[in-house]
Each structure stands twice: as structure tokens, then as C-alpha cells.
Design goal:
Blueprint (H helix, E strand, L loop, with lengths): L1 H17 L6 H29 L4 H21 L5 H17 L1 H19 L4 H29 L11 H11 L1 H14 L6 H22 L11
Family: Belongs to the sodium:galactoside symporter (TC 2.A.2) family.
Protein name: GPH family transporter
Keywords: Membrane, Transmembrane, Transmembrane helix
Amino acid sequence: MAGVMRSAATLYYATYLMLGGVESAAGTAMKSAFVSTSVVGTIIGSIAAGWLAKRYRAVSLFKNINLLLVLVGVVMFFVPPTWLPVVFPLYFLVGFFHQMYQPFKWNMMANAADYGEWKFGRRITGLSYSGNLFALKMGMAVAGAAVGFSLGLFGYQAGVTAQTPLATMGIVGLLTLGPSLSYLLLWWLARFYKLDDKMMQTIQRELSMRQQQGHSETHLPLNAVPEKA
């Protein structure tokens, strides 16, 4: 949800606030560089996620990264869009941290599937992933619709060089505060997620023991000959 909202607002932010609504070859190059800054951040964030996962607890990383994204978004809201030496690094950090927590999110989904099997004796991988993907797609749809609705509500006018102060604030908010609220919600929800590394080690160990017991009790070796009565 946060990524869709920010991506949808990026070109409005770059065109009307960073460039003042004036189209030029230099402006087009600047917008491309601005978008690329976030893309580079996501690439480096993916690499950093693997390094951090080996050294810190995944759930703690997930929560802390979301708080950092909230902080960066709030700071960026108050930075004038024309301060390019500040805006570019902040947008890089947004891409960096946003992509960094993605592997931990999918890992938490897998852990939930293992927990379901451990708790109820049934594998719920399909249910877990389908439910999460439904929520993800629904969030993306809501975020995309919210951007268009909000732009109209704030009085945005396409093609107008100088947007109204309310429209300007709305565009900045969609790029910064809107995603920050989503990250804050993720942080709050993650507080109720109790499948930390220690508990998952216990769950995986017990699941492995159950599988070994089930195999030894229900399966004969391939070359075994049943005893005659």
C-alpha cells in the first residue's frame, strides 16, 4: 500500500513541486534521476537485508525498519521539494528501507504457515499465502484509488504550472505522510507477532520430530517384505 501510494505520487511531486510544472529536457532527465534514486536504493536494500538477517532478529528488524520509514517520511514532508541535495538522499533512503523489510515480511508469512501446522496439525501454507496476497492486492487497489481521490479533493489541476497551496500540500502528503501511516500501522501490528527466532526454532524442531515419527510408523523400507500371518 505504501509503495503504490508513493509511486503514484512521485511524478506529481517531481513535476509540479521540484520543477514548478515546467517541462524541459533537463527537467525530464531530473525526474528520471529522481525515480532512479529510489530504484538504486531498493537494490542496495535487498542486499543489505540478507546481511542483517544473519546478525539480528527478523521481527525486530521488521519493526525497526518500519519506524525508520515513518521517520524519513515525516522529515521529507517538511523539506522543501526544491532542496534537491536533501530530497534526493531522503528518497534514496525511502527505497533502501522499503525494500529492506520485504524479505522479512515474506519470512513472517512462512513462519505463520509452520505455526499453523505445529498448532493445529494441518499445513496451511496455501491459506496463509493466499490470505496475505489478497490483503496485499486489496491494499494496492485502495492506495491507487486513494491517490486519485485525494488529488481531486485537494484541488489538483492537471497541466496547471502553479498548483494551489492545498494541492501542493496534498501531493507532498501522498508521497510522505500517507506511506508513513501505512508503515506505522505495520509496526503496530508487528507488536502482536510472537513468532520470534527462538520460538520458530522450537516449532521447526518439533515439526521435524513429528515427520520422523510419522515416517517410521507408517512407511516400510522399499525392500521390506511384509510378514505372513
